[in-house]
C-alpha cells in the first residue's frame, strides 16, 4: 500500500474514534532531519493536540527506541501511521510510549492524562492495491530486480524475460503490462522503454524485499564447520560444478574491506540443496552459522571478487539493511554509496 493511502485511511480511523471530534490542519511535509512525513491537529472537547506523523509501509522489529522514544518536534506529539501493527509490535511501541494507529483500526493514543484510546485485536486485511498488484508480489519482485539492474531488459521479449527470471510467460505478461499501465515505465521511442522514477521503484523494491521476496528465496539455516572458509566452500562448489554466489553477510564482506561476516550466506539453485548439504557436511540448525537462499536466476550473479561470485549489490544491501547488527547496517550504506546510488538516479 502506498504511503498516501495509508495516511488517508489512518486519518479516517482517527476521525471515527470516540471521543475525537475532528482531525484538521493536515499537512504533508516530509522533514528528512526529524524523520516525519507531516503534521495534523486532533480536537477533543476543549482540548487541541498537535502531532507530527510518520507513515510506515512496513513496521518490523526491533523498534528503533532511540529514534521514537519521547520524540517531539516543537512541542508536537508523535504518532505512527501504519498499514498494520501486530500485537507484539504494538506492545513494543506501547512500552516506549509511542502513539500509533493502523489501517485496520488498531490504535494506541495517550497524551498525559488528557487523552487515552487503546484498541487491539483487529486482524490484517489485504488492501485492494496489494491484491491486484503483481509487481510487488514474489515473482514480480524477482523480475523487477533484473529490470532495475539492467534497464535494457525492459526491451527484451516476454519469453526471454520469463526464462531469465524463472517465472511463467503469463505472469511475465501481467507484470510488464502493469509496469506500463501504472506509469512505472514509459516509452521513449517505438518499443523502447525506461523507468519513469527509478529511485522510487528501487525504494519500493527494498521495502518489499524482507516482507515478500526474502521468505520465498530463503531455503534454510545450517551449521557448518568453522574451518570451512569462503575459499574452501568456493573450491568445493567448483569441483562439483554447482552454480552458486555469495550474498548477505558474506557478500558484504567481499564487496567491502569493512565487514567481517558472522554468518555465511550462499545462493544456490534450489534443486541442488541436498548435494550442497552433503558436500559441505551441513546440519540443519536454529543456532546457525550458514544460510542458504535460492539462486533463481544466473542474472542475479553480479561479479567475481578474488575468484568468489557475489550476487547483485542491491540484493546484498537489502539483506544487510534488515540486520540488527550496527556494523552490518554501516556496511549496507557503504554498498549503497559505492554500488547503487549512482545507478538509480
Pick out its properties.
345 residues, alpha+beta, Arc Repressor Mutant, subunit A, Beta Polymerase, domain 2, 5-stranded mixed sheet
Notes on the protein architecture:
The structure is a single chain. With 345 residues, this protein is an alpha+beta fold. The chain has 3 domains: 3-119; 133-196, Arc Repressor Mutant, subunit A; 214-343, Beta Polymerase, domain 2 (2-Layer Sandwich). Helices cover 39% and strands 26% of the residues. It is built from 13 helices and 16 strands. It has helices at residues 3-15, 65-68, 87-95, 128-132, 138-149, 158-165, 169-181, 198-217, 230-239, 248-255, 273-280, 313-321, 326-340, and strands at 22-31, 36-44, 47-56, 77-82, 99-102, 107-111, 115-119, 185-189, 192-195, 218-223, 244-246, 264-268, 283-284, 290-294, 301-305, 308-311. The strands form 4 sheets. It has a 7-stranded mixed sheet with strand order 1-2-3-4-5-6-7, with helices on both faces. Strands 11-12-14-10-13 form a 5-stranded mixed sheet. A hairpin with a 2-residue loop joins strand 15 (301-305) and strand 16 (308-311). The two termini are 24 Å apart.
Q: What's a quick, concise take on this entry?
A:
The protein has 345 residues and is an alpha+beta fold. It has helices at 3-15, 65-68, 87-95, 128-132, 138-149, 158-165, 169-181, 198-217, 230-239, 248-255, 273-280, 313-321, 326-340, and strands at 22-31, 36-44, 47-56, 77-82, 99-102, 107-111, 115-119, 185-189, 192-195, 218-223, 244-246, 264-268, 283-284, 290-294, 301-305, 308-311. It has 3 domains: 3-119; 133-196, Arc Repressor Mutant, subunit A (Orthogonal Bundle); 214-343, 2-Layer Sandwich (Beta Polymerase, domain 2).
